[in-house]
Amino acid sequence: GAVVSQHPSRVICKSGTSVKIECRSLDFQATTMFWYRQFPKQSLMLMATSNEGSKATYEQGVEKDKFLINHASLTLSTLTVTSAHPEDSSFYICSARAEYNSPLHFGNGTRLTVT
Amino acid sequence: QQQVKQSPQSLIVQKGGISIINCAYENTAFDYFPWYQQFPGKGPALLIAIRPDVSEKKEGRFTISFNKSAKQFSLHIMDSQPGDSATYFCAASRVGNEKLTFGTGTRLTIIP
Question: What does the DSSP assignment read for A83-100?
């Protein structure tokens, strides 16, 4: 089945630094990937839609200059949290689908802790 | 605006019993309704999904019931096992829009 790999699984960084999270589709090509954020015991909130070869589409309220998304190839999308602050601490999850109308598969998430 | 409402927030079921989680949606354009299972520290995994052209779909111990007129759908887990203890999310999307709108989640605990 379709596998989405996310790296790293956990990262701790100091306030003011930037962190990059990678999302890879291992056995399929994904023209579109999605980035979600999940706070403890809460639902998944869509942050942005990452489109291969073009700019990401951000959801309302998500700062595009803070959460930089790059989708340079059909198998890789990256999310960079710039100038991270403690309030950015969260669980970030990416997802992708192999083709239009096929099920959405999720990575295992990245636990970001900003100290 | 919460477009998919999920209940209950938490649920405790005895081993062997039936677990039932309910969701209601507002957007009549939604036409794809998946359920995801999430274990702590992991991403959600697709469990089962349904489209509105059928009223029920069964896969093993998991069944989705769908009521289009009431705009409701539910997940039934038969013969619930301790390994089913997880958080379950319903979701919805519509053709032409790949975004999923998630419910608020249900923490299911199966006790021996």
Answer: S--GGG-EEEEEEE-SST
Of A43, A49, A104, the CB nearest to B103: A43
> What's the rounded Cα separation, in Å, for the pair A22 and A96?
13
pLDDT digits (tens, 9 = 90+) for B16-30: 999 999 999 999 989
Query: Residue B20 has what pLDDT?
Result: 98
Q: Which of A3, A36, A41, A43 to mutate to test the interface with B (most CBs of B within 10 A)?
A: A43
Select the residue of B44, B95, B103 nearest A106 (Cβ to Cβ).
B44
β-pairing verdict for A44-51 and A57-58? antiparallel
Q: Do A43 and B36 touch (CB under 8 A)?
A: no
What average pLDDT does the segment B93-112 reach? Answer: 88
Q: 3-state DSSP call for residue B83? A: helix
Residue B103 C-beta-side C-alpha neighbours within 13 Å: 31
Q: What is the dihedral of CA B61, B67, B68, B72, to 10 degrees?
A: -90
Task: Quote the CA–CA distance of A18 and A87 in Å, as a whole number.
Answer: 14
How many helices (H) and strands (E) would you count in chain A?
0, 11
How sure is the predictor about B96, in pLDDT bands with cuts at 50, 70 and 90?
A: low
Query: B10: closest CA among B109, B91, B107?
Result: B107
At residue A41, the pLDDT reads 85
**A32 in contact with B at a CB cutoff of 8 Å?**
yes
